[in-house]
């Protein structure tokens, strides 16, 4: 990744943090929930099959529901 791309990404992350003080907490919770539900599976690999896509749809719905339950959004 180029330095300018990295700087742009860092600026975008800081903007998200400025807009939402719970940004980092939400990211961490999202990742923990995904890790738990994926149980070691790799989403990009799962997406290569219809069965994997169906499973990912269910996992994504569960993660979304957990996020709304915890953060109200």
Describe the fold and architecture.
It is a single chain. This protein has 73 residues and is mainly alpha-helical. It has a domain at 21-71. It is 81% helix and 0% strand. The protein contains four helices and no strands. The protein has helices at 3-19, 23-38, 43-46, 50-71. It is flat and about 40 Å long. The model has no long low-confidence stretch (mean pLDDT 96).
Beta fraction: under 5%
Name the overall outline: flat
Order of helices and strands: HHHH
Mean pLDDT: 96
**Poorly predicted ranges:** none
Task: Classify the secondary structure makeup into a structural class.
Answer: mainly alpha
Kindly state the percentage of residues in helix.
Answer: over 70%
Distance between the termini: 32 Å
Task: Tag the structure with descriptive keywords.
4 helices; flat; mainly alpha; 73 residues
Short description:
This protein is mostly helical. It has a domain at 21-71.
What's the structural blueprint in terms of helices and strands?
Elements: H1 3-19, H2 23-38, H3 43-46, H4 50-71
Helix pairs in contact: 2-4
């Amino acid at each position: 990744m180029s330095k300018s791309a990295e700087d742009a990404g860092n600026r975008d992350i800081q903007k998200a943090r400025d807009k939402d003080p719970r940004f980092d907490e939400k990211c961490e919770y999202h990742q923990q929930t995904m890790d738990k539900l994926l149980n070691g599976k790799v989403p990009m690999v799962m997406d290569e099959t219809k069965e994997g896509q169906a499973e990912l749809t269910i996992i994504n719905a569960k993660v979304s529901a957990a996020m709304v339950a915890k953060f109200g959004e």
